[in-house]
């Protein structure tokens, strides 16, 4: 997947994906269904107003981010939750491994968490001889296949039922079946034992509420609740941008999140955790930890425009509506977050030099920006990143890691010449007249452009000539 | 080490300059979502039924019988109740011989495998409901622990109509949730489900396969 020593091989990945009718079919069907469901879910809503509120809630939270994080820290501690801070993924993994070691933990059960994917937590735990088992059905399938999620909400969306059946048969001995109910029941049975015996449960967080010190988790399967309730120790891990001031702010975000993601008015469970088990309680974890992970977010935060990226509530709607994502699928991106959000977030986290093709892997059709529940101007940010990757804006120096990666030596000179020519009417006329005169000499093959299109050819007469001819032609009448 | 991480992260965040104040939050789009009591019931029922939840309307005096009838329809023989459950006396008096009542009155560690493998259903109270999304509000307590609504294959819950609210925002504000939350609070909107296998919706993932809500109407207009 992500090659740590070189840039993401996006183009070869795309080629492979486009040549795979299975993948294209799986994604097309799934994305069509999700788009319909989302539309229906907002039927009786003033969606524009709700999105404006969602955006305002996130902007408010980000505006006060340092204060809110401190408040969250204080409130959680007061509630008995142990709070840890990590500058990057490795530090977070080390912290979590330490907690597990201290508890002599051998086996960890995990709920869905994209930030743990981001920091490759499972890999770290394995190296410390701690077995980490994913319990969300999609993640469980992906882990069994030794793959990574291809969608942030539906990790195994790239697989069809037959592939999943074969996989479960190979790895767990489940009887082959094309009945999703049977396969689900089989996974449930296998995981029950594991929930009962796990030493630690690790989950993500959808919203962290500062004023009450509450961690909110959204899920349908119940695996998240089991993960956070049954093992004696629960570790919640989250990016620092997920904090909001109060539960009031959660209401609109929750309304937007589940409808945008899967078209449901709400998920089966909305789980609010505000502390470990109390002495008089019969169940729940005796220890609850919160790990706050920066991993590049405080850098993204510095630029007013780019900081909009941090408003994301990870609903996946931008992927579901993206014509590029739908055709190539999530694995082609080779990064934790694929699709439009991946295209703006990953270059900022990993550097433009690691993801040089991301800002341009878009037709700028605008669909992602239109559906984003918190109004992240994704197309505008893609354009901004394109500028950053060629150091193209002399008034606003680029500062995203790896900027200027696509700046060639020749191109700036060509544009300089272009600007010079356009500033002088005489030169401009001479240039266009020459182009019209020698139009047959323009090349017919122009690299990638002419793979699917014909090369443009200058018109036989320039616009100036055409207008002039028209005037002389009209004057007599 | 972690205290320096905290200081580093906060210091970096504080370097950001803000050129303008953040926009106002206008909650009117949520506040406008209000219904009459009758509409609220209808909306709650529709939403819950659309995700295979079951809503049984009943009255205070018929509640025990309604619960027992529903249990016997599914041949439930082992029902879990909370400690000091308001239903215990009534159910014990009216139940037939093959229904065993279990009480969750000891720490999970002492009877985990029994809870996971033998209990067939659990009956809980609720703190209220939300009409907008067809959700139950549960605040587990020492008497009614968290796993009751999660581990047994069937969850039965009692909800009084006058505790049916419009939206989550309304509940959070009226009940002042910000002033203090229990260790665990939940919204439950249907039996557990998954669509992770090729988008096929399957009910009964890791939580209950069935959710039955007894909607108790004091006015007696239950039918
Ligand atoms: S960028 Fe917007 S649409 Fe995409 S996942 Fe984030 S919140 Fe959802």
UniProtKB/TrEMBL annotation, chain A:
Set out the biological process GO terms recorded for this chain's protein. lactate metabolic process
Q: Which domain of life is it from?
A: Bacteria
UniProt keywords (A-Z) are: 4Fe-4S, Electron transport, Iron, Iron-sulfur, Metal-binding, Repeat, Transport
A Pfam match: LutB_C
A molecular function (GO) held by this record is: metal ion binding
Q: Which segments constitute the 4Fe-4S ferredoxin-type domain?
A: 302-332
PANTHER family assigned: LACTATE UTILIZATION PROTEIN B
**NCBIfam families, alphabetically?**
LutB/LldF family L-lactate oxidation iron-sulfur protein
Question: What name appears for this protein in its UniProt entry?
Answer: Iron-sulfur cluster-binding protein
Q: What is the lineage of its organism?
A: Bacteria, Pseudomonadati, Pseudomonadota, Gammaproteobacteria, Oceanospirillales
Automatic annotation (TrEMBL), chain B:
Which InterPro entries did the record assign? FTHF_cligase-like_sf (IPR024185), LUD_dom (IPR003741), NagB/RpiA_transferase-like (IPR037171)
Q: Which Gene3D superfamilies match?
A: NagB/RpiA/CoA transferase-like
A Pfam family that this protein carries is LUD_dom
Entry superkingdom: Bacteria
Residues forming the LUD domain are: 41-216
What are the boundaries of the region Disordered? 1-25
The name on file for this protein is LUD domain-containing protein
According to its UniProt entry, this protein's organism is Saccharospirillum salsuginis
């Amino acid at each position: 997947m992500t090659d740590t020593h070189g840039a993401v091989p996006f183009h070869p990945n795309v080629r492979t994906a486009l040549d795979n009718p299975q993948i294209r079919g799986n994604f097309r069907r799934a994305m069509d269904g999700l788009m319909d469901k989302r539309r229906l879910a907002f039927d009786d809503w003033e969606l524009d107003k709700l999105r404006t509120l969602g955006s305002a809630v996130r902007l408010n939270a980000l505006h006060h981010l340092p204060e809110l994080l401190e408040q969250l820290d204080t409130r959680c501690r007061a509630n008995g939750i142990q709070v840890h801070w990590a500058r990057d993924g490795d530090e977070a993994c080390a912290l979590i491994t330490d907690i597990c070691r201290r508890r002599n933990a051998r086996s960890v059960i995990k709920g869905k968490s994209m930030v743990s994917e981001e920091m490759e937590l499972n890999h770290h735990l394995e190296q410390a001889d701690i077995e980490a088992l994913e319990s969300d059905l999609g993640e469980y399938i992906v882990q069994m296949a030794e793959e990574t999620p291809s969608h942030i909400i539906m990790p195994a969306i790239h697989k069809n039922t037959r592939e999943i059946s074969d996989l479960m048969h190979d790895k767990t001995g489940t009887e082959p079946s094309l009945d999703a109910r049977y396969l689900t029941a089989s996974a449930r049975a296998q995981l029950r034992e594991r929930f009962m015996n796990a030493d630690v449960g690790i989950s993500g967080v959808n919203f962290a509420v500062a004023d009450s010190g509450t961690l909110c988790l959204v899920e349908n399967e119940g695996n998240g609740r089991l993960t956070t309730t049954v093992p004696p120790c629960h570790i919640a891990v989250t990016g620092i941008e997920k904090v909001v001031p109060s539960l009031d702010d959660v209401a609109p975000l929750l309304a937007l999140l589940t409808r945008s993601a899967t078209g449901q008015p709400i998920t089966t469970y909305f789980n609010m955790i505000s502390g470990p088990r109390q002495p008089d309680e019969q169940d729940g974890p005796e220890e609850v930890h919160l790990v706050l992970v920066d991993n590049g977010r405080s850098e993204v935060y510095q630029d007013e425009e780019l900081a909009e990226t941090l408003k994301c509530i990870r609903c996946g709607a931008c992927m579901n509506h993206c014509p590029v994502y739908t055709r190539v699928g999530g694995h082609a991106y080779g990064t934790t977050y694929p699709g439009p959000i991946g295209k703006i977030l990953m270059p900022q986290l990993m550097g433009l030099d690691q993801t040089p093709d991301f800002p341009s892997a878009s037709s700028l059709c605008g669909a992602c920006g239109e559906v984003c529940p918190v109004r992240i101007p994704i197309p505008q940010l893609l354009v901004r990143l394109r500028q950053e990757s060629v150091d193209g804006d002399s008034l606003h120096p680029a500062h995203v890691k790896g900027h200027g990666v696509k700046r060639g030596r020749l191109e700036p000179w060509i544009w300089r010449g272009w600007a010079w020519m356009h500033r002088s009417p005489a030169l401009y006329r001479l240039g266009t007249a020459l182009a019209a005169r020698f139009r047959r000499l323009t090349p017919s093959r122009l690299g990638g452009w002419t793979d699917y299109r014909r090369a443009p050819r200058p018109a036989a007469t320039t616009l100036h000539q055409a207008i002039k001819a028209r005037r002389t032609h009209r004057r007599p009448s | 080490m972690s205290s320096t991480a905290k200081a580093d992260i906060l210091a970096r965040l504080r370097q950001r300059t803000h050129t303008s104040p953040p926009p106002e939050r206008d909650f009117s789009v949520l506040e406008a979502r209000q219904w009459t009591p009758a509409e609220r019931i209808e909306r709650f029922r529709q939403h819950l039924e659309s995700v295979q939840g079951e809503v049984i309307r009943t009255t205070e005096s018929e509640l025990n019988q309604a619960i027992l009838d529903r249990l016997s329809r599914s041949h439930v023989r082992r029902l879990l109740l909370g400690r000091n459950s308001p239903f215990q006396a009534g159910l014990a008096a009216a139940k037939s011989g093959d229904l065993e009542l279990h009480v969750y009155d000891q720490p999970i560690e002492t009877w985990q495998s029994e809870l996971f493998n033998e209990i067939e259903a659990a009956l809980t109270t609720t703190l209220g409901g939300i009409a907008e999304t067809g959700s139950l509000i549960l605040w587990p307590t020492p008497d009614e622990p968290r796993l009751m609504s999660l581990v047994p294959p069937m969850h039965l819950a009692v909800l009084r109509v006058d505790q049916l609210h419009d939206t989550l925002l309304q509940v959070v504000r009226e009940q002042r949730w910000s002033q203090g939350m229990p260790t665990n609070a939940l919204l439950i909107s249907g039996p557990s489900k998954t669509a992770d296998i090729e988008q096929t919706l399957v009910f009964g993932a890791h939580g209950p396969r069935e959710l039955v809500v007894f909607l108790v109407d004091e006015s007696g207009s239950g039918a």
